[in-house]
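Input sequence (178 aa), recorded before submission:
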Amino acid sequence: MSGFRIPMEASARSKLVRSEHAEQSFLFQRLELEAGKYPELRLAFAVPNGSNKSMAMAAKFKKEGLKSGVPDIVLPVPRYPFHGLFVEMKRSDAVPSDLSPAQRDWLAALEDQGYAVEVCCSDEEALEMILRYIKHDRWKTNLPGIDMAQKHARVRIAAGLRLDWQTPPRKGRSKGEG
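Predicted structure, token format:
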């Protein structure tokens, strides 16, 4: 495989970790493969919030309505009782504190509006969650590995999100409440 390299970043927490960009790129490649079985996956799209932009481009995007903290991936496919799914991608070495206050606020607000929200720390985890959402069988299948399940639960709790999709959204949540 000459000429093919997986983008990697050095990290204090891990020797080599794929960048969030690489994780998300791999996810969209895998979603395209799964779209043969689940055509609605073709509706998934990315929100370019985290991309590196010049000051001029950042100002232009802000005028056009780009908002800080909006989750990275949107799947506008309803699955009762949700209107759609929003996914915030993080690197595989992410910790709960890696979510910014703006990201936490967006995730909580979207959840309160009846959307399913997820924080995923790898393309594998994101694909698993998206397929569970599409099939609506999230709790019938175990996550691949207890460590990932525990990490996922810690990230959701730190973000102030519910741990399951069966609990109805909390209405009237104040901004500081999680």
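Checked by second reader. Residues 1-14, 138-146, 173-178 have pLDDT under 50 and may be disordered.
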